[in-house]
Amino acid sequence: MGGSFTWPVTLESGDIVLRPIRYRDRKEWTALRSRNCEWLAPWEASNPVPGGGLPDYRQMVRSLKAQAAQATALPFVIAEWRPGHEKPVIVGQLTVSSIVWGSAMMATLGYWVDQDRAGRGIAPTAVAMATDYCFGTLGLHRMEINIRPENGPSLRVVEKLGFRDEGFRPRYLHINGEWADHRTFALTAEEVPEGLLARWLRSRPA
Q1: What is the pLDDT of residues 181-205, one digit of tens each?
Q2: How confident is the model at residue 143 (pLDDT cuts 50, 70, 90)?
Q3: What share of the chain is helix, strand, coil (3-state, %, to 5)?
Q4: How many other C-beta atoms are found inside a 10 Å radius of the C-beta of residue 130?
Q5: DSSP letter string over 178-195?
Q6: Model's pTM, two decimal places?
Q7: Nearest to 120 by CA among 92, 86, 97
Q8: What is the pLDDT of residue 2?
Q9: Which domains does the chain have, with CATH numbers?
Q10: What span, in angstroms and rounded, lies between the C-alpha atoms of 158 and 187?
Q11: Which InterPro entries does this chain map to (predicted)?
Q12: What does the pLDDT read at residue 206?
C-alpha cells in the first residue's frame, strides 16, 4: 500500500459529512431509498444471474464492512447537518470500491443523492472529499467513475469536478435488469495537486 489505510474515518466540509454506513442506519437509509425509488431505479445495479436478487440492507452492510476490513472499499453515507437536528441527516450514499494497490493504486467511486437535495452541490462536495482522502491519505493515484450516458444529474457532477471523459464502455454493468452502456470518467492525483475539494469550492458561485 502507498499510504495509510485507516477505517473507519469521517470526513466533513461545511454542512456535508461522509461517515461509515452502520447497521443502525437501516431505518433511516431504507426510508430514504423508498422515497427515491423511482428517481434511482433507472441507475440501480441488478443481478445478471437468472432469478438472482440484490442483498438486503444487513447483507449489504456486512459485505461493505468486510471489504473495508480488507482495504478494498470505503463505504460511506452522505449526511447533512440541518438546523434543529441533533445529528446529520442521511441524504445519500458514496462508496469507494475496487481499491487496487501495487502498481495500479486506483479505485472506483459510486454515489447517489436524495432527489430533493440534488443540484445543491452535495454530490460534488462528497465526491471531492472522498477523492482527496484517497489521493492524500491512502496514496492512490487514480479515481474512476462510470456513468450511464442517460444519467444527466450524475454527468453534471463529474463535469463540475473536472473528471476526464475517457470514453464509452458498451454493456459495461448490469443495471436495472440489463447490460448497460457506460461512460468512464477519471482523475489522477497529478491533476489536482492543490486538492479537488479546494478547486471545487473555489469554482462555486459566491
Answers
A1: 999 999 999 999 999 999 999 998 7
A2: very high
A3: 35, 30, 35
A4: 24
A5: EEEEEEEEEEEGGG-TT-
A6: 0.95
A7: 92
A8: 55
A9: 11-203 (3.40.630.30)
A10: 10
A11: Acyl_CoA_acyltransferase, GNAT_dom, N-acetyltransferase
A12: 61
